[in-house]
């Protein structure tokens, strides 16, 4: 039976999605940026599936989706979707928890090395005509401590990549079994210990009400002078104003950020001019291979939902206890 899919996301020319829709007789419609800004409620009211990236899917929008079976999130995090509201409406939310794990871990490592070796700062000096002995305070990495806040797939992948750097690795994550830490040679610690003992801190936790502004002024004061912060998770985990102050006064040595509290940043955002802030525009998950996997994984879950089966990557598993709509597979 033909389904109507409305998408706010077009990856390139979306060849994978277009071919899948054509082969299965589905109607696939991509929204323009102006249509998204006008509001999804009117655009997606008759959709059987709504595909989004970072667009907010709140309770009001959910209530307008009278036919919707599934909301597909192109990515890992689902903090932009009201999961409880979707469950109440009987709508599956699918995401891609294994998507871009290697890419984001690599981005974290790249930002760390950039900050430690001051690559971006030195690049700017060279482009401005400076050439000569380096006067920047660059320190050796080996023997130092790297702490990971969150120890899910991405952090564990990063830990594997760091094995040759002769670092002491510690991590805080109350939801991950100790065995996962032990098998990678990572010491499990509480958050305060991690903040006090780390020379480098890398964020890998989801954005929730508990983790919003997890790092703010009190936490920065607990850190060693010169600590380097890496964030490839979500910008709002860090209080940006407190981060700017810590970078300005030198208590933090540097920050490598792939995510910001407000994206895109306002033109006057001080992070844009701080020399010890290295910024990338939320591209940590990107690679040509990951883009293909993203589309294929989402399509497989849509096929399962459209044929009355539970999707593999269900973000709101509480739905299984509320509706008999799907077969248990």
State the order of secondary-structure elements, H for helix, E for strand.
EHEHHEHEHEHHEHEHEHEHEHEEH
Question: Count the helices. How many?
Answer: 13
Radius of gyration (CA) equals 22 Å
Helix content: 25-40%
Anisotropy-based shape:
globular
- Total number of domains: 2
For the secondary structure, the number of strands is 12
CATH classification class of the largest domain: Alpha Beta
N- to C-terminal separation?
21 Å
CATH topology of the largest domain: Rossmann fold
Query: Major sheet: order of its strands?
Result: 8-7-6-9-10-11-12
List unreliable stretches of 5+ residues.
none
CATH architecture of the largest domain: 3-Layer(aba) Sandwich
Q: What portion of residues belong to β-strands? A: 5-15%
Structural class: alpha/beta
Mean pLDDT: 94
Biggest beta sheet attributes: 7 strands, parallel
CATH superfamily of the largest domain: NAD(P)-binding Rossmann-like Domain
List keywords for this structure.
single chain; 329 residues; alpha/beta; Rossmann fold; seven-stranded parallel beta sheet; five-stranded parallel beta sheet; 13 helices; globular
Which SSEs are present, and which pair or pack?
Layout: E1 4-7, H1 15-24, E2 27-30, H2 33-38, H3 40-43, E3 49-52, H4 59-64, E4 70-73, H5 83-89, E5 92-94, H6 101-117, H7 119-127, E6 145-149, H8 153-161, E7 168-172, H9 178-182, E8 187-188, H10 191-197, E9 200-203, H11 217-222, E10 227-231, H12 240-248, E11 252-257, E12 277-279, H13 288-306
Parallel strand pairs: 1-2, 1-3, 3-4, 4-5, 6-7, 6-9, 7-8, 9-10, 10-11, 11-12
Helix pairs in contact: 6-8
């Amino acid at each position: 039976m033909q389904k109507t899919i409305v998408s706010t996301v077009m990856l390139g020319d979306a060849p994978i999605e277009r071919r899948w829709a054509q082969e299965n007789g589905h109607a696939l419609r991509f929204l323009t940026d102006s249509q998204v800004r006008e509001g999804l409620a009117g655009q997606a009211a008759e959709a059987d599936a709504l595909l989004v990236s970072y667009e907010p899917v709140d309770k009001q929008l959910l209530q307008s989706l009278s036919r919707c079976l599934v909301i597909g999130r192109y990515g890992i995090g689902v903090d932009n979707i009201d999961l409880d509201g979707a469950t109440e409406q009987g709508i599956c939310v699918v995401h891609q928890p294994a998507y871009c794990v290697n890419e984001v871990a690599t981005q974290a490592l790249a930002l760390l090395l950039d900050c430690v070796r001051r690559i971006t700062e030195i690049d700017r000096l060279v482009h401005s005509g400076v050439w000569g002995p380096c006067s920047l305070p660059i320190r050796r990495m080996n023997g130092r401590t790297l702490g990971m806040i969150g120890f899910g797939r991405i952090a564990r992948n990063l830990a594997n990549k760091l094995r040759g750097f002769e670092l002491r690795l510690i991590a805080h994550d109350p939801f991950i079994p100790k065995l996962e830490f032990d098998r990678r040679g990572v010491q499990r610690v509480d958050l305060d210990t991690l903040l006090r003992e780390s020379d480098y801190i890398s964020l890998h936790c989801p954005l929730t009400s508990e983790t919003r502004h997890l790092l703010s002024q009190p936490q920065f004061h607990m850190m060693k002078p010169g600590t380097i912060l890496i964030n490839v998770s979500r910008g709002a985990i860090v209080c940006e104003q407190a981060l700017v102050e810590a970078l300005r006064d030198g208590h933090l040595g540097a920050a490598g950020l792939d995510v910001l509290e407000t994206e895109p940043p306002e033109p006057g955002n001080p992070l844009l001019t701080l020399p010890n802030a290295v910024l990338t525009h939320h591209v940590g998950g990107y690679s040509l291979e990951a883009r293909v996997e993203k589309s294929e994984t989402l399509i497989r879950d849509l096929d399962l939902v459209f044929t009355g089966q539970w999707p593999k990557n269900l973000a709101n598993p509480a739905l299984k206890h509320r509706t008999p709509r799907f077969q248990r597979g």
